[in-house]
Predict the structure.
Amino acid sequence: MRRVGGMLSGVGLLAYACVVPDVELVHSFPGAGGSAAGVTAAGADGHGGRTAGGNPDAGNPAAEEGGGVPELGGAGATAGAGGAGGVELDGAAPSCAALAKTACRGESCCASPLVPSCSGCTEAMGVTLSAAELRLDKFEVTVGRFRAFVSAYDGPPPPGAGAHPRVEGSGWQAAWDGNIAADANKLENDLELRPCKNLDVRTWTKAPGDAEQKPMNCMSWYEAFAFCAWDGGFLPSEVQWHLAATGGAEARKYPWPGVNLDPDHALYGACGNGVSSICDETSILEVGSKPAGAGKWGQLDLAGSVWEWLLDTTSGSFPAADPCDDCAHLESDGGHRIAGGSWVEDASYLPAAQRLGDASDSTWYNVGIRCARAP
């Protein structure tokens, strides 16, 4: 297994794919084209020091949907596994403290099902997890939840905050302070006034409105990290997200059983990309609007809706080229991974193996966030 990546000029996103041996999968983002620049990992903190080279030939991508497995059968999502925790309705999380317990599809917006350990499947990714049981929020972070964060915001997180409990050295770094607003007023102004990258379609509004249960978009990786740290969680590692999106050992192509993709399972294909010609805020639905697309442990919108920022930088390969234990790519290369596809992309971006990456300070109209938590 190997990673294929290329910097796509015009939009600046790196394309990644989990691929079978000798089959390359590179997808350009809508509107991308032209030459590509390489990305070099600096290597630090004992987390691999790997290097990701740019692909200058990424301008004419294959239109293939990615790897998959035969029809797996079975019913919809189940909450929890093996009696190990089930779904945590965590109204105590700061972002949900003032929200109704039924604010998101009839339940807490901070529901966080357990993603259990997966014996025999993490090794195929080049990473082993000594204790993989972690919770991954059922819903993407909504505008209403992010509004609570903005209201309480008093500056960058303290050093070490928001660390992934399985990944040493993954907490907030003081060197990042300049990449996030100094106070709540500046953060609110940034969210309201700065353009969303590539298409100015944002779910955030200065005052609460009709989009409070829609996924928050147009946020940088630093803002995503700070939100999860404040909310008592952390950004999921690429391996953790992948386990949830593929059903662990079932190695699903999509979060749901089987290999069929249609608009009943995921929100995708807007802006003339196969499903709808509409290309504005009405195309973005409330979180959890596609219950048929639930993953094995109950997470919704792992495919479509908005891409989700991950803990890992764009410096390494996935699956990992060098096997490691309890790790993520933390090398400082100026970019971070996103996964899951969004409301805009065509069907080729929806398989769980697909990845993109971009500069950590980018604020895309179709990128959001989902937090992970300790069990």
Q: What stands out?
A: The helical segments are 143-152, 184-193, 221-230, 238-246.
